[in-house]
Records
---
Amino acid sequence: MKNNILSTIIIFCCLYLACGNNSKTITIKGTILNPADDKAFFNYPDTTYEANVDESGKFEISFLRDSSEYLSFRHGRESTSMYLKPEDNISLELDTEQFDETIKYENSSQSSFLAYKYMLNEKKDFYGEALYLKDDLEYQQYLEDHQVELLEQLNLIDDKDFKVSELENLNTSIDRYHKQKQNLSEKSKEELAYLWDVRVLYQEYNFYGLLDSSSESEFEKTLMEYEKKVMESLNRIKNWNDSSFVKEKEKISSSINNWIERKSSHDNMPNVGDQAINFAYPDQYDKMIELSSFKGSMVYVDVWATWCGPCIAEIPSLKKLQKDYEDKDIVFLSVSVDTDRDAWDKMIKDDNLGGVHLWADGWSEITKSYAIFGIPRFMLIDENGNMISVDAPRPSSDDIRGMFNENI
C-alpha cells in the first residue's frame, strides 16, 4: 500500500514539474459526421495533440495548457481556427461534407466567433469583385458594414483578452484592405474591369487542374482560348498609351509561355516506379549533396521555404514523424527554395530542425524536374532511387505513415 501511495506521489510530482504550476486541463468532445479518417488534431504553435476518432465519428481528448491560446483543429484535409482557455470543457460537431459551414461549438464563444468570422470573410471576398469594381467610397462603406457586423458578434463575448486580440486583428485586416484599394486608386474603371476579367478567367480555366487532365495539344488549345478572351478584355481599355498596351500584351504572352513550359515539366516528371531525377545542392556547411547519394535508404523529400506559412505549419508534424521513424532507414531530406540563405540557416538552428537540409536558392533544378509550382511539396523515393510518390502525403496526414510502412 505504501509503495502504491509513493508511486502515485512521484507520478503527480513529475506531471506537476513537467506541466508547470498554472497548467490546467482542457477537455474537448467531438462528433464528426462523415469522418475523413480516424484522427483529429489540435495544432498549437509548439505542439500537436492527437485524438482518435471512432467509427461513429466521436472523439474525446484532454490535455494540459497554462494559458489561453489560438490553435487550429484539423481533420482530414480541412482545418479551422480555435481559441481555448485552461479548464475549458467544450464540445464540437461538424460534417466533413460542409466543414466550415457546419462546425458548431458548445462552451466556446471564442471559437464560435472565429468560425463566424471565417464564413463572413469568405462571403465578403475583400480581394474580389468589390475591390476592383466598387469605387473608393463604396468600398469604404463595404468595409465599415463588415466591421459593424463583426463587432456586433464580438461584443457578445465576455473574454476581454480575446476581444482585444480580435479588435487588433480586425484593425490590421481593415488597414490591409485599405492599402490594397489604394494601390489600385490610379487605375481607370476600364483598367480595373480588365484586371477583374483576368482574375475571373484565370479561375474559370483552372490551368493547374488541366495539367493532369488534358493532353499537351488540348492544353495549348485551351491556353489560346484563354489568351483570346484576355486580349478582348484588354482591347476595351481606351485610355492606355501604346507602350502600356505593348507591355501588358508581352506580360500576357509571357504567362502563356510559362504555362506551356509548366505543362512540359509536368508531363516529363518521373512517374511512380521511374528513376528519380537527380539533383545536387549545398547543405548549411557548403557541402554539395546529391539525391543519388542516399541510394540504399528510403528518402522523404520536403520542398519548402521559411516564408511559406503552410510549410512552417508542417514542421511540428515533420519532427514527430522523424522521431517516430528514427530507428528506420529513412532519410528526411528538406530542400529550401529560399533566396535568403541567412533566414534559412537561422531557422534550421533556431527551430532545431532535424534531417538533411539543402539550399536550392530559389525555383531551380528541382522545381523544374518535378513540376513544383507551389510548396510545400513532399516526395517519397525508395531505396533503389525509384519514385514511390511525386506528390506524397504531408507529415500531418496519417497517410504518409501507411506509405512508409508499406515500403520500408
---
Amino acid sequence: MNSAGKTPLRLAIAGLGAIGLTVARRVDEGGIEEMVLTAVSVRDHEKAKKHFAEFNSPPEIVELAKLADVSDVVVECVPAAHFLEVARPALEAGKMFVPLSVGVLLKNMELVDLARKTGARIIVPTGALIGLDAVRAARSGGLRSVRLVTRKPPYGLEGAPYIAERGISLDGLSEAKKVFSGTAREAAIGFPANLNVGAALALAGLGADDTQVEIWADPGVNRNIQTVTCHSDSADFTMSIENVPSDENPRTGRVTAHSVIAALERLTSPLVVGS
C-alpha cells in the first residue's frame, strides 16, 4: 500500500515491442499514479531481461495466459494471431483489458458479453487516431455518417492480406494510389495489422458496417495520416493527425504508446479530463 492506504493497480503487458516497452518504462519510473508493473509476456526472454536491467523493479516474465493471474489490468500489444490468448483469460478473470489489436476485437464481439458476465472491462485506447470522445458525443447527439481516410507510405501496407490476395503492386509508386474503399469491418479483415484505428473509430461511432474507410498508399508521405469526417445532428467536424513513426518500429506511431499511457492514467487519476 502507499502512504494513503491504497493498493496500487497491478499492470501486466503482453508484448514488449515499441508500444509495450514504452508503457513498461513509464510505469516502472512511477509515471502513472497508483500503478505498478508486475508482469510481462514476451517471446525473447533474454532481450527482455536486458531491458529490465535498467528498471527499478523488473517485472516477472510469464506466459500469455498467466498474465491475468498476477494483475488487475492487462495491456495487449501482441500480433493479432495471439490476441485471444491474452483477451479470454483476462476477461474470464474479470480484469480490466486494454487491447491494441482492436480489429480482432471487432471480429470477436462476444468478448463484450463475456466481460459483462464476469464484471471485466474492455478499455480501447484512442491509439493512433484523434477525437474519439467527440465521435462518442456526436453519437449521443444523432451521428449520421463517419468516414476515415488513411494515408500511409507504401511500405506501411506491405504484407496486408487484402494487398496480397488481390496482387496489388506498391512498388515504384510515383503518386498516391487508393488501395481500399469499404467498411471498417472489411478493413479490419483485409488489414489486420494496419488499421486498428478504423476498428476503434467504428466502436466509438456507428459500428463496423456503417463506418466508411479509404486507404491510400502514398509515396509522398513519411507518416501515417488519419483524417476523420463526421456529420451529426449536434456537430459536423473533420479531424486529422499525422503520426511520427516509432524509432523501434517505423510502422507504429509514437503516439500509440502514449495513448495507452493516457488510458491507464484515467484509471487512477483523481482528475479526468475529456468525456
